[in-house]
Amino acid sequence: MIEILKRMLRSPQGALGLVIVGLILLVVIVGPWFAPYDPEKMAPLMRYKPPSAQFWLGTDQYGRDILSRLLHGARATVVLAILATALGTLVGAVIGTVSAFLGGRSDEAIMRTVDAIMSIPSLLLALLIVNLLGKSSLNALLAIALAFAPGMARVTRSVALSVRKQDYVNAAIARGESAAFIVGREMLPNVVAPIIVEMTIRVAFAVMLFATLSFLGLGAQPPASEWGLMVSEARRFMHLSAWMILWPSLAVALVAIGFNLLGDGLRDALNPRS
Amino acid sequence: MPSIHRRDFLAASAALSGLAMSGVPAFAQTPRRGGTLRVSVDQAVSKLNPLVTRVNPEYLVAELLYSSLTRLKVDMSAEPDLAESWTNSADLTEWTFVLRKGLTFHGGSPCTAADVVATFEAILDPKTASPARQNIGPVAKVAAKDETTVVFTLSAPFADLPVTLAYLNAKIVPAAVIKGGLEKLDRQAIGTGPFKLVSFEPERQVVVTRNDAYYDKARPYLDKIEVLVFPDVSAEASALISGDTDLLGTTPPTEFGRLQKASGVKALRLASGQFCNVNFGCDQKPFNDVRVRQALALTVDRAAMVDFVTEGFGSPGNDTPLNPAYRFHADLPAKKADIAKAKALLAEAGYPKGLEATLIASDRPGQRTQLAVALREMAKPAGFDIKVETMPHATYLDQVWKKGSFYVGFYNMQATADAIFSLLYTSNAAWNETRWNNAAFDKLVSEARTTVDDAKRRALYAEAQKLMYEEVPSIIPAFFDLLAGQRDWVEGYELHPRGSVYRLDFVSLGANAPKRG
Amino acid sequence: MSPAYILKRILLIGYTLLVVSLIVFAITQILPADAAVMMLGENATPDALAALRLKMGLNDPIWMQYLHWLGGVVRGDFGVSMRTGQPVAPAMIEALGRSLLLALFSIVLMLAVAIPLGIVAAVRRGRAADLGVSFLSYIGVSLPEFVTATLVVLVLADWLQWLPATGYVPLTEDPLRGLKHLVLPVLTVSMILIAHVSRMVRSELVDVLHSDYIRAARLKGLSKRQVLFKHALRNALLPTITIVALDVGYLLGGVIVVEEIFALPGIGRQLIVAIQARDLPSIQAGALIMATTYAVANFLADIAYAWLDRRIQYD
Question: What keywords tag this UniProt record (chain A) (predicted)?
Fold first, then answer.
């Protein structure tokens, strides 16, 4: 574990990714305590202010402090993305591992079906599911998890297939262990590393997907300070104050960049090439 | 002075803005003929059938392709359209309209009294689902006396008939089409309007071309009009600023500042009775208790609301749909926020710990959400815990509008007090979305409708407004000025306070307009 | 590549579409919308509604409705739009054409930019050019389309006023205006693709340049340039084809947002409009057409890959 961390810090991507994601997680945890103002407090006389000593990032169309809103919104934006990815990964990993374990025709059937589902673009699938379930942050989470599951199943299966050929799996089969035991105890733990890499990169996608759903009016609802929603709302006011749209856009991009870098760094660290 | 007269008010507001309302437009010489005008609108033109249109871009297109018996002038009075004159019986229950001679539909077939009768019969048929049914007045029977004479028999005396017959959906369509099925008008247009349909792509553009057989030989001045759909209001304003479009139907306050600054663009502003309201389902808990509605109304800081929702391009409302732009506006004391009183009322109504509710706001126009979020914050200290839910406008129209019990509405100014009351607030209103169903109010409105004496009528309408002011079937926190823009080469265009009347057949292009296909 | 393989792939496309049709049909069945009410409007009489339900087969069991719908789809009949009352298929096909135009321009722009970027980065590995490309590509993949779109509109359309912000003009109607309207959407869509593919080209090329095969070529005395363009590039670009095909899925998703923002009446925007209006036949048709596009793109990529691969082996 320490070894991996060291290797990551040595590569520029890994180091930068760790720093950015670390900072983001810090904001997620303690951000709201450091917010200088109430993120929902309106001030009719303080609207559309540019950045100043009083409002570091300026104010929005209701005179609310943008910095405070970003600090509060980090939770909604980042935590939900991580949860959605984790859930999607879990579902996908189970399907992929089971498919690899079963092999043969069942594997073929499962994977072809997974491929078929993957031919529906994630965003479209998420749109349909959110419409079906009704829009809310929780439903957006489920939709993204479901949209991610097939892709993760594919990745897990290919890793699991190589694991399945390993001796300890054959040994377990020879011992006559139950399928559930083999999949859960022997195979899953060994496919974890590559999956974590894939997952980290997917968190970046999830942040973007969440923001896009909110942007289309299907995720968080006002006056929430989810960042995608902030961008979406700010579009209407961009000619009165460009700052309003700039800051949350940068925040979304920064999170995505952070997780992308971290994912690449992790991959290099876990899979050292010459 | 108990109320400002509409005309004075309009003149005053024009002077105030220093823009718009050129009054008598400055074309001393005759308008230039020819050219293509590009008009932008902010929503799709989904419905082409003029009897069932329901949003401004659809009204705009219907007005180009079809005609009514009368049309609405900028001062909200009626002028001849297909009907060249009309008379009424002394008791106001029988009206006779005489059509122009030699009217033809776009295909060339004649338009006669029979078509007018068939159209109004279709409108009165609930199966047609035309909003005009409740908005053309107490029409009981329509009959053709001869080729060009139509007689309307009313169920009650009614003085406003020539004005209500100009209603947006009361457009004349061929009797033959009605017989064969109105679906025919979903994709093609067979009207008597100044323009003929060339192409129709609901989400993108509608193109119309000059109707040479139009009854007025002088108009229209333009050869062609392209109605372009811009789902993004910001892009719509950009298109006008860059000269890509010539005329912009309506723009939100957030874009108006850019139009004012842009060179070559005339920003148009006109005070109007257009408003956003918060509708209560008055037949459902908790809003069936008048105290709850009053409590919420008491939380609203109306001056701040004008800022938040209209960026200052508007005026505070008093929970009645009439403002000084209407002739029968009653001057009631301006409502003020009073959180303590709101709390007390809420407790009295049985909610001492406050109350939760979900307020639905569609995403178009953006002012709806703006209003909803501001209301949420203002109502918080009084104990209201409001959850705001936004949705795409199309979903809202299908799922919430007229059905929900707590949502934000948005309405154009109507031609008369009667029109707005019987569109939204009487028990038999076309869109009785509040289900307030107040018998006293109904009685006042129907009595005013049949009263000829102006002072008596004014008193009745004042009473009706007072009832709404007190019982708050919906909160009307602010009225909007109409905001729009045009290139300076567009001549003869005037903002119409109705908000959905355009009169583009009076528009022409100046010598400096760009030449287009 | 045997005919049997191609046949198998085609059968797989059939299976894919069957699964997608089931999913899409299931979702649209559960969506809360009464088809009959939507078509007749809210003021329809109960009699009329009942009659229409009977006529539309809405009283049949679900599986029969599915088979009936599927039968229509096979014949190219996707039903009638609840919103416009017009047949769905022609409108969707027309919209697809516009989306494909957008996709085509984006892919061409992507190839023109991403491959040279990838080559430069690989050849100058670890130096400023590599880091620069790498930095840009991280930003590229990390900006959601709606952010990119908003920024390009703000800068290129509003501040500089070089291009129209939104709208669509068919190329057949006015080629110059049509192209102008396509520039911003194409820029937005290709941004992520460029970022993604340039990274791929770079890493493939880096791998290839370190392979024994290239070392052998260098030892034979070929110049650096010859090695790069004659041998390395071909091998490195091959996997790129697959990546581009897989990106089509992402492209289609991105197209939804981009078309919505730029008011481009392609299939993505049709789908959004259909979803908002609960226009079930249009949703079904749109989703199925998107999935078909993806499946066909992947099929073609596989065929192209196999074909090119063979040529390289025998070269």
Answer: Cell membrane, Membrane, Transmembrane, Transmembrane helix, Transport
